[in-house]
Amino acid sequence: MSLQETLTAELRSAMMAKNAERTGTLRLIKSALGYVQIEKKADNLPDADVLVVLQREAKKRRDAAEEFERGGRPELAAKERDELKVIEEFLPRALSTEELEALVRSAISETGATSKKDMGVVMKAAQAKAAGRADGKSLSALVGRLLP
Question: Which value, in Å, is the radius of gyration of the alpha carbons in the chain?
């Protein structure tokens, strides 16, 4: 069963259970996937494309929660975090700090990077290896710290 089919099945079961919050979040995801399907003129999306959409939606929720916290709206930040929890159920497990550091170190050695000038090359290699299991912000910070 593809990830898109799993999302559809989860939406159906959330609707049957009358879980309004979960249903709303899954509908938002389904809508975002629909836009990508129209853009790509495809009936079904491969799991890689679905993961990209899920990561983008998760990032939106993280950023919105931070902004609501800064703006003094904790109730809206909590709502965004609840939606984020539902989205994260469908994302692959994130890499631990140790795994991420090992991945970046191997990307640095493979690319032969010697200074911060090579950061773009290292980032490209590290992102390919991470395959969506690490966000770009933490990856970039780690690459910047590990490059001389």
Answer: 18
Average pLDDT for the chain: 88
CB 44 within 8 A of CB 4: yes
Q: Could you tell me which of 50, 136, 46 has the C-alpha nearest to residue 100?
A: 136
Q: Residues 12, 16, 17, 23: what is their CA dihedral angle, to the nearest 10 degrees? A: 40
Instruction: Identify the residue whose tokens are 């979960």.
Output: 22
**pLDDT tens figures, 20-70:** 999 999 999 999 999 999 998 988 888 888 888 998 999 999 999 999 999
> Residue 126: what residue type?
A
Torsion sign (Cα): 140, 133, 135, 54: positive
